[in-house]
Amino acid sequence: MTRLRLLPLLLLFAFLPQAKAQLGVYGSFTASKLEAPNTSWFYGPTFGAYYDGAHFPLVNFGIDARAALLGSGAEPSTKVDSVLLGPRAVLHAPVVPLRPYAEALVGAAHVQVGQGTAYSSSSHINYGFAAGVDMTFFPRLDWRVVEYTYTRFTGSSGANAQKTLSTGLVFRIPFL
């Protein structure tokens, strides 16, 4: 019976915010594939920063902003330059160096796809989600082991969605 009385107190502690906010700056190598006919994988960098302002013992909440400049690969005419922003949630276990996260994203993209008469170049609003795992290997440095991002484009560009896989480094900067 005494343990049952402690349950509300433990639940309250689990959801009380912690004091420190955190900024992370990252760079990733990204491979991407459009959902469009006759396109292959193309590559480029993704840069971004996140701010986790709400820290709880098991989960952190924040916001992420990123830019991707993708367009080298087998088909040099296929390019996607995008800027995305959205909320993020990070699972944070105190002893485990892995930090799985998920994000909802919205932004803008410029898409070039096709060749000759099938060439299309247009700008769109895009939206989607990202999920991945960061692993701490130095006190302020994480390896972004893998990130999967799926975004959809509004309007017609010859492509209606994009799938990406990324890996890279994250530098975390704590502050109050």
Give structural notes.
- The protein has an eight-stranded antiparallel beta barrel.
- 7% of the residues lie in helices and 67% in strands.
- By secondary structure, the protein is mainly beta.
- The radius of gyration is 19 Å and the shape is elongated.
- The termini are far apart.
- It has a single domain (18-175), classed as Porin, CATH 2.40.160.20.
In a nutshell, what does this entry contain?
The chain has 176 residues and is mainly beta.
As for the number of domains, it is: 1
* H/E element order: HEEEEEEEEE
At CATH level 3, the topology is Porin
The stretches of 5 or more residues where confidence is low (pLDDT under 50) are 9-19
CA(first)-CA(last) distance: 40 Å
Strand content: over 45%
> What does the average pLDDT come to?
85
Give the helix/strand class: mainly beta
Q: Main sheet? A: 8 strands, antiparallel, barrel
CATH class: Mainly Beta
Strand ordering within the main sheet: 1-2-3-5-6-7-8-9
Q: Categorize the overall geometry.
A: elongated
CATH architecture verdict: Beta Barrel
What integer value in Å does the Rg equal? 19 Å
